[in-house]
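Run log, item B.
One chain of 230 residues. Sequence copied directly from the ordering sheet:
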Amino acid sequence: MSRANMLLVEDDSALAELLVWNFEREDFRVRHTPDGEEALLLAREQVPDIVLLDWMVEGLSGIEVCRRLRRSTETANVPIIMLTARGEEEDRVRGLETGADDYVTKPFSPRELVARVGAVLRRVRPGLAGEQLSYADIEMDTVGHKVRRGGSTVALGPTEFRLLKHFLEHPGWVFSRERLLDAVWGHDAEIESRTVDVHIRRLRKAINDGGRADIIRTVRSAGYALDASA
């Protein structure tokens, strides 16, 4: 599994330490905060691949953190697993209705939680589950640097390959030019956002060759998304 970035929001320091140890052992990068407000700041600074969110944390409640993460365009699709001592069905339903993807009631075993996180990531972030990425009729071998669409080989330059890889890891997500610059070129790259448009055009030309359907959606004033329904 490729390394996944986790945001852990938990104010029980002993439990947080145990979870950090278990997930780092599974090769996750874990950022931890006991505070709901800080969790929102951390999520904006670097959008996580998954959020483990305690129902009762300092500052904002876990439910409110979940609600605000879902309202934000950048984090609307990030999977969220709620951790809580509340086992009542009504509370579970409320958590799921707020936008949580899964719900784990304390006490739980760290191994169970690792398995649940892995299951959610495989469902929503298939790109973190191995070396082969695929979406619709596009397949990518990230180790061999090979791309096929509908069984036919697609020739891509290194930048277009990285762009497509990022899209394949987040199918359906809308990325602004600035977010794509950070993800594909890096924070320190002195490149204009218009450069993204140039490489998107090249990527489109390569993967749509032969009259195939355009699978990259342009979202006016927002950015681009890999979207088979486009």
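Observations after the first pass:
- The longest strand covers residues 5-9.
- Residues 110-124 form the longest helix (15 residues).
Flagged for discussion on Thursday.
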